[in-house]
UniProtKB/TrEMBL annotation:
Name of the protein: MFS transporter
Cellular component terms (Gene Ontology): plasma membrane
Membrane topology annotation: Multi-pass membrane protein
Subcellular location: Cell membrane
Membrane-spanning segments: 42-61, 73-96, 102-121, 128-150, 156-178, 199-224, 236-255, 262-283, 289-309, 330-352, 358-377
Main location: membrane
Alphabetized UniProt keyword annotations: Cell membrane, Membrane, Transmembrane, Transmembrane helix
Annotated source species: Streptomyces corchorusii
Matching Pfam families: MFS_1 (PF07690)
Biased segments, Polar residues type: 393-402
Signal peptide as annotated in the record: none
Single GO term (MF): transmembrane transporter activity
Length: 402
């Protein structure tokens, strides 16, 4: 494994910790600021929307510097945002801190995906991307449960202080291990935007919004769901998040491995299974053992979609992949914001803490339908390309016989 992939995974670990740890300490934050849990859910939605905005904006602004320098700048932004969240005297300032930290998220993973893919042979690109994202999944095994435990025992402010320190480690890792790749050509910006003329890029991002959004519909409110429905103690949520993280870790590895072999069949399988498991979670959430198993499956199936969706975007925008890759990371978080908001809506409507699971199942099922459409359009495009006369044949006056 190239050491640069390790550096990217370190940065991903810090980013993954701050993205998901808020769910484990959401009740504590809500109590501290005197807001409701659905209102506190805006710390999830606000972060996600910041990723949506920051991904394309900072990626475009970063075209005038090397990818390494841009990754270092993004980690610096991440540190500032988390430090502000830790020290925020009001809910509004904490939300601002979350947004500042989130601006780095999409561009880091978008640029990092391109760097990771360029470090390996073409047939291993999805696996390389999954190795970078492994840092995010490990964060859900170690960083998020650890941060949740610290937040419950010593206060959520210490959690975000330590997250900022993780960002500093990620910054050093990028500085030491990621190679300079030179300054992109100034003309690349227009080419990057041209990639969005491909309808497949938009379909991939729509699948990302709906598919991964289905996971966040359930996970955003996992703490109240597990404590008030399944009957777990608040301290047990830490270990439930470990199980979710283990599922993400395994799903990410399998998603990267099988996406290199059969990308669209992998998407069909994972999206269909994810929708079914989310639907099942409305029932299994009432039983401790079944809830834990289902939560692990949601993590695995949800993150198994990440490498194939990211590789699909890179393939469809191969001439100018950086902006499309970052925009797809933004799409993941647009789905997170949409799902967290919809989950809060159904809870506020009095439908109970399991109602977001219905929302998640509907979102993932819709993503499955879009994957069928994308596969159909891809097959039609390939058939048209295969049936078109070869330029050399058009210039040949007499066909060659057999």
């Amino acid at each position: 494994m190239p050491l640069a992939l390790l550096a990217l995974a370190i940065g991903a670990f810090g980013i993954g910790t701050t993205e998901f740890v808020i769910m484990g300490v959401l009740p504590q934050v809500a109590d501290d600021f005197g807001v409701s849990i659905p209102t506190a859910g805006w710390l999830v939605s606000g972060y996600a929307l910041g990723v949506v905005i920051g991904a394309p904006l900072l990626t475009v602004l970063g075209t005038r510097v090397s990818r390494k320098k841009m990754l270092m700048f993004l980690m610096g932004l991440f540190i500032v945002g988390n430090a502000l969240s830790a020290a925020a005297p009001s809910f509004g300032l904490m939300l601002i801190g979350r947004v500042i930290a989130s601006l780095a998220h999409g561009a880091f993973f978008g640029i990092g995906s391109v760097v990771a893919a360029d470090l390996v042979a073409p047939e291993k690109k999805a696996s390389a991307i999954s190795l970078m994202f492994m840092g995010l999944t490990i964060a859900n095994i170690v960083g998020v449960p650890g941060g949740t435990y610290i937040g419950q025992v010593a206060g959520w402010r210490l959690t975000f202080t330590l997250v900022a320190a993780l960002g500093a480690v990620g910054l050093l890792g990028v500085a030491k291990l990621v190679p300079e790749q030179g300054k992109p050509r100034a003309g690349n910006v227009r080419a990057e935007f041209a990639a969005f003329r491909n309808v497949q890029v938009w379909l991939a991002m729509a699948m990302t919004v709906l598919g991964y959004g289905g996971v966040f519909a359930a996970i955003t409110y996992i703490t109240p769901m597990m404590t008030q429905v399944a009957g777990y103690t608040e301290g047990a949520v830490t270990w439930l998040l470990v199980l979710f993280g283990v599922g993400m870790f395994l799903g990410n590895l399998l998603g990267g491995k099988f996406a290199d072999r059969a990308l669209m069949p992998m998407l069909f399988t994972t999206l269909a299974a994810l929708a079914a498991v989310l639907l099942l979670f409305t029932a299994t959430a009432h039983n401790k053992v079944l809830a834990a198993i289902t939560l692990t499956l949601i993590g695995a199936l949800g993150f198994a979609t990440v490498p194939p969706l990211q590789k699909w975007v890179l393939d469809q925008a191969s001439a100018a992949p950086t902006l499309a890759s970052a925009a797809n990371i933004g799409a993941f978080n647009l789905g997170n914001a949409l799902a967290a908001w919809l989950g809060g809506v159904v809870i506020a409507a009095g439908l109970g803490y399991t109602s977001p699971n219905w929302v998640g199942a509907l979102l993932s099922g819709t993503a499955l339908l879009l994957s069928f459409l994308a596969a159909f359009l891809d097959r039609r495009t390939r058939r048209a390309s295969d049936s078109a006369p070869h330029p050399q044949a058009q210039r040949t006056s007499t066909p060659i016989g057999h």
